[in-house]
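Lab manual, section 2.4: Encoding a predicted structure.

Procedure: take the sequence of the chain (124 residues), apply the prediction step described in section 2.3, and record the output as structure tokens. A sample record is shown.
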Amino acid sequence: MYAIVNTGGKQYKVATDDVITVEKIEGNEGDKVTLPVIFLNDGKKIVIDPDKLAKAKVTAQIVEQFKGEKQLVFKFHKRKRYRRLKGHRQQLTKLKIVKVQATSRAKKAVKAEAEAVAEAPVAE
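Recorded output:
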């Protein structure tokens, strides 16, 4: 099972136990965050309906808060003696995906159905 989640204006394909680097999410190391799901695939069926996806959730744990590599920003106007060099380091967060959950109702329905079958008398 995998899901496509949206965070920081970007989309990421995630599955359980994946580690991804995203733009900074507020929180400390060890905190759990929930990411919004925009697509879900469980191997048998694909879910893109927004009503069903509202019940789906992806839980991730913050592993690390850090700064990315330095990106150089160089501005240049030819024949004008204009040159500017600046650097930028983006604040990033490393997330470990703990759980990709389709819906809580579907699991409860399957569990209730299994219990009903187990309790039903066997006709001989």
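Check your result against the sample. The CA atoms of residues 62 and 102 lie 21 Å apart.
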